[in-house]
Amino acid sequence: MKKKENFIFQNKVSRFAAARARVGSMACRILFGIQREAFDLVAIPKGEVYKNFNVLTLVRRSEAESMLDEKGKPFKAQEIDPKNSLVIGTIRMGFGHWRIAIALASAANSMGVRAYLLDLMSFSETPIEKSIKFLEGAYNSLSRLSQKSKLFNTLIWEPITSGMNARLDSAIQNREVSKLFTAALEKLPKEIPVVAAHPWVGWSAILCGMKKVVSMIPDNLPLAFWLVEGSIHTVQSPSAYMGYRTLIHMEKGAPISNCIPQDEIVQTGHYVDYEILDSIKSDCEMRLEREKNHEARRLLLTMGGAGAQASKFGEIANYCKTYIEQKKVCLLINMGDHEGRWNELKLALEKNSIPYQMHTDWKKTQAFAESAKKTKLTGVHIFLHSDFYAAVYCTNLLMHVSDVMITKPSELSFYPIPKLFIQRVGRHEAWGAIRSSEIGGGTKEATNPQILNRILKMLVEEDDLLKLYIKSILDNNKIKIYDGAINVVKIAMKKTNETKPPQEKKKSTKK
User: If you ran DSSP here, which 8-state letter would residue 155 be given?
Assistant: First the structure.
């Protein structure tokens, strides 16, 4: 093993930790092999992400000819043009990484920058896709188990998500795993900026010698999991800047003596789509107008990528049943693409005799969201879409027409809508709720049903908390707290300050 593989930002990690970091990648190599031939990528105008944001999707040239558009015609493949463009690298793994990528695509489009979407999960039947599915499946299963077993959550899952992922050897583990994915980026033009919404993409780009890599860090809790040495790191808050800059609490064994260089980390603000950013004022005005007219309080419930909140949604719906019947509450429940979790929620709704309306057609969902700006809403509306983009972006559309979003404190913690935070999935998410509550964007985390119901009752029956959050969101917007995605694009397109390759620890000159 090369000496430099024991170092992160010139901080030594034990050989044992470095060796252990290779276990996951070795397992994937044994199970699925490794993609040795580099992908020859071209760009096609595919799907909703192209329609909405003019983003071209990167696919293998050999597959482009067989891909058909909505009219059944072959896509016209384009060569990758590095001029005034960037690559958004993400993984269709959970919803957060994809939502952040969409926010960046939206920002780039608003600034006239061409964006290419690179999704590592899109290369079907390759060792890359199989390895990620294997790792994602394990994570999702454990996430769901953490919501069903308090003992497992307390003793195992939270220590993993906030303890093991915090240590520097977590970054080394990601570097090792990312060696499995370099074939997807190896033939990209070296001068085109790569903005990574997941560290596996960032590390892959660095390992391929890309000249400029930007790593978007979503978590407010400092975790070495997100570090990609050689890239420019962006964070959403001052506390995250301090934590990542100093590598706080990332020690394991040897003390940390070196921090992230100042020119390799930037506080950008919250990663928010341009469409949401542009309509903050009008969305808040409509919330105040609905409150003034005593319309049903619109509660948006959002399912996470792991699908761990189905039972919680059932409990909330049951608690709100009387409010729903009195037309004081309207529930908008986005189940994402989780048909299995919907079946679980469906049983709960039917058991408690709560009627609902289904929305599964994406075009009709878009029309519903648009009409909701001008019409009164009542009842319970369930949104379920098999298309992954629709499953994620449905929440973004419904934010505009909702009064309060009920969500776990994930990447959605940073969006400009009043929020009620239910129990986190992993201790690292707690800091999203802390950030949001401190800047007046949402509640503290409601960790049990009694607290949740008490807050929910107040948000429905009274108006002071809702008005507090709306005022805070408008104030935050004035000081550009929500401009993070715009600022990330500016950083990526700045031609100076190219990233540097990781450096080996300098030898001491002391005698």
Answer: I
Strand, coil or helix: 96: helix
What's the distance, Cα to Cα, between the start and end of the chain in Å? 28
111: pLDDT confidence band, cut at 50, 70 and 90?
A: very high
Burial class (CB in 10 A: 0-12, 13-18, 19+), 481: buried
**Residue 57 forms beta bridges with which residues?**
44, 117
Residue 28, CA distances (Å) to 15, 33, 87, 127, 141 in order: 21, 7, 26, 8, 18
- How confident is the model at residue 164, as a pLDDT? 65
Give CA–CA dist 283/288, Å, rounded. 9
pTM exceeds 0.85, yes or no: yes
**pLDDT one-digit tens code per residue, 290-318:** 999 999 999 999 987 556 688 899 999 99
Nearest C-alpha neighbor of 437 from the set 401, 465, 479: 465
For residue 183, the number of C-alpha atoms closer than 13 Å in the C-beta half-sphere is 16
251, with CB counted inside 10 A (0-12, 13-18, 19+), is: middle
Q: CA-to-CA distance for 8 and 240, rounded, in angstroms?
A: 19
**DSSP assignment, residue 156?**
I
Q: Are 293 and 260 in contact (CB under 8 A)?
A: no
Q: Percentage of the chain with pLDDT > 70? A: 89
Handedness of CA 222, 226, 228, 231 (dihedral sign): negative
Tokens of 75: 């896509």
Which position has the token pair 């608690």? 319
Pairing mode, strands 419-421 and 404-407: parallel
pLDDT surpassing 60 at residue 274:
yes
3-class SS letters over 243-273: HHHHCCCCCECECCCCCCCHHHEEECCCCCC
Coil, strand or helix: which one is 198? Answer: coil
Q: Which of 197, 190, 186, 233 is nearest to 212 (CA)?
A: 190
Q: Look at residues 180, 175, 241 and name the one whose alpha carbon lies nearest to residue 213.
A: 175
Tell whether the torsion through CA atoms of 53, 59, 65 and 66 is positive or negative.
negative
Helices 362-371 & 388-399 angle (0-180, nearest 10): 0
Strands (E), 311-423: 329-334, 357-359, 379-383, 404-407, 419-421
Smallest Cα–Cα separation from 353: which of 380, 335, 334? 380
Q: What does residue 302 show for φ and ψ, rounded to 5 degrees?
A: -120, 125
Reduce the DSSP state of residue 169 to 3 states and report it: helix
How far does Cα 134 stand from its chain's mean position?
19
Q: Which of 97, 216, 152 is nearest to 426 (CA)?
A: 152
Whether the per-residue pLDDT at 506 is higher than 50: the answer is: no
Which residues pair with residue 382 across a beta bridge?
Answer: 333, 358
Return the DSSP state at 182. Answer: G
Closest CA to 236 of 444, 476, 414: 414
Residues forming beta bridges with residue 117, ordered by sequence position:
57, 88
Side-chain half-sphere of 368: how many Cα atoms within 13 Å?
21
Instruction: Classify the C-alpha dihedral 299-357-272-228 as positive or negative.
Output: positive
